[in-house]
Amino acid sequence: MRSSNPVFSRRGFSRDNGHAGFSAPPQPQAGGPAVGTNPYAEGATNPYATNPYAQDTQLGAPQQARGNVMTIDDVVSRTAMTLGTVVVTAALAWFLLPVDEANIGKSYGIAIGAALVAFVLAMVQSFKRKPSPALILAYAAFEGVFLGVISATVSTYISPGVVAQAVLGTMAVFAGVLIAYKMRWIRVTRRFYGFVMAAAIGFILLMAVNALFSLFDGAGDGLGFRSGGLGILFGVIGVILGACFLALDFKQVEDGVNYGAPREESWLAAFGLTLTLVWIYLEMLRLLSILQGDD
């Protein structure tokens, strides 16, 4: 099963029959230790036949003997570095690329260029076999430039407080999904994954069609999915999808830690989480902009 995250869909932390993605919890082999015992205890038979990193250790050797394995602390520190880069470059773009009437065209051009570069870097990293910290941080820097200009524009022409509200909303969604996942109120199963992927594909296709129609619409509203009642509805759906992506990302991180993924894989986790949080922020910003604009 593959994650909705483009990073994890290319190279997941757990695999089933050699394919990237996460699989159902592996079952102990015949004669292996009972469920609940330490599968990596010295002298034990490894029950995780589908563990993609088992080839790095001798069967029966302690998992810790391999060293240099990914931990939650690694994921947290790399995510902080990646998101920190986004925030810093966004702040710089906000102040150095003004969006007043005299400069908005130039600033928008730079923002669109930065967004395209960020997209290319994200795709390159997604198809690389190993994570590249420099590539991931470069993506974060260019993504921050785009977010800084967009945020400044919304704050200037719609509502000065909408950006802070979007940031707080994004943080609230992250915290809420993390708590729900840790409490097992959200269970990431194949059915959950299938539902999220189907909904995400439909959502993206509708937004693409709306963008296409907006090119021929003098008002630039397309089919109306970006304004009014429909805009609010699709904004809520976008945020909910982002929350579902977070649950899938948390599952991937959990699998990576449990399977003893190499420490370098924490950069992929940070990259994937950053992509998802950027999605949530943009959807939250769009939703709040519509609500503020209707006041």
Quick synopsis:
The protein has 295 residues and is an all-alpha fold. Helices cover 63% and strands 1% of the residues.
Task: Give the SSE map.
Layout: H1 6-10, E1 15-16, E2 19-20, H2 72-96, H3 104-126, H4 133-157, H5 162-182, H6 190-214, H7 228-259, H8 265-293
Helix pairs in contact: 2-4, 2-8, 3-4, 4-8, 5-7, 5-8, 6-7, 7-8
Describe this structure in words.
The protein is mainly alpha-helical and 295 residues long. The protein has eight helices and two strands. It has helices spanning 6-10, 72-96, 104-126, 133-157, 162-182, 190-214, 228-259, 265-293; strands at residues 15-16, 19-20. The chain has a two-stranded antiparallel sheet. Helix 3 runs antiparallel to helix 4 (133-157). The relative contact order is 0.16. Residues 10-49 and 55-65 have low confidence and may be disordered.
Can you write the helix and strand succession as a string? HEEHHHHHHH
User: Stretches where pLDDT falls below 50 for ≥5 residues?
Assistant: 10-49, 55-65
Structural class: mainly alpha
Termini separation: 44 Å
Q: What's the alpha carbon Rg, rounded to whole Å? A: 21 Å
The major pleated sheet works out as: 2 strands, antiparallel
Mean of all residue-level pLDDT scores: 78
Strands in their spatial order, largest beta sheet: 1-2
Tally of strands: 2
Q: Strand fraction band?
A: under 5%
Instruction: Give the helix level as a range of percent.
Output: 55-70%
